[in-house]
Amino acid sequence: MKDKTKLIAAGRPHGRSAHPVNPPVERVSTVLFPTYDDYLEGARTINYGRLGASTHRALEEAVTVLEGGFETRLAPSGLAACNTAILAFVGAGDHVLMTDAAYDPTRKFCEKFLARFGVETTFYDPMSDRDAIAGLMRPETKVVFAESPGSLTFEVQDMPALADAAHANGAVLIADNTWAAGYFCKPIALGADVSIQAATKYLSGHADCLVGTVTSANETAAKKIYMALLQLGSNVSADDAYLILRGVRTLSARLERHQENGLALAKWLAKRSEVERVIHPALKGCPGQATWKRDFTGASGLFAAVLKPAPLPALKAFFNGLKLVGIGFSWGGYESLALPVHPERYRTATAWEEEGPVVRFHAGLEDIDDIKADIDNGFAAMTQAQ
User: Does the active-site annotation cover 39?
Assistant: First the structure.
């Protein structure tokens, strides 16, 4: 089946002559077993609420089918999914290779938390090829962590090259796949051992819950992920799992609209006199754009624009002039967003040398003309303030 059909068919109720279209919300802490044999069987499946129940299993099944993996487990947020996946494969004295364009909280987890337990992290240029990554590998390197496109600056990484370098050294490749939502890119098919999503974003699509997904490529990785989540006491509410699963059903339709609006907005911004350049994986000039063409089947609605240098009062006026487009940290919901970001604050392996301010845009599902008109008002206010 095609992905559009998989998103509708996977994780649906089965086994009854009459059943609801959607899996019901099963809220549970204690699970009762009628017989001793049922108890023994339950120990291998669903036995306690913290480990999830039928609602969670339905969502996990749907995401596994979408990502093309062996098994999916849920975490309380995208960050929890990233951190748990790393923890599953490292111990004291180990080494992690982390993309320099990673989501900053993931980066801080390595720098501030893992370092306390003797796990060292080296940040690498997200545009590194196989040889460059191989040159950074150590005997104690256990994880290569990729995020493609990169957070804030949208570099598209060469996943097969990263996988080759990691596996040649006995390490695993973990990929943050949130931007593509498991729909426009399949890291596991490209060689990743683990694919992560902040389901908070596109899988939910409605900006009203927090969940992370961790999909393993094989049984060995799956066991490590499961034990890490189990030992950390991680859990997701059945209500949030239900909301994510409901969002999954409309993922393909929403992403196609996000892609359409995102490309239209990016091309419009690229022609504005206030804009120095637009960073969008589907446009020429974005680092790794050729790799995006090879490995991705589409683009979501998240990208960035580097504005021409402007004083802070003018930048404030731009954001204050927005009425439809919100100022918000997250993305992936139905609403359009704009956020001032500062890549220069988060780089150590690479330098961010753009002089103008950077604005991250998320193109929502509104009419594109209304989005453009609102941003045009923002630019008008910016001009008046200069």
Answer: no
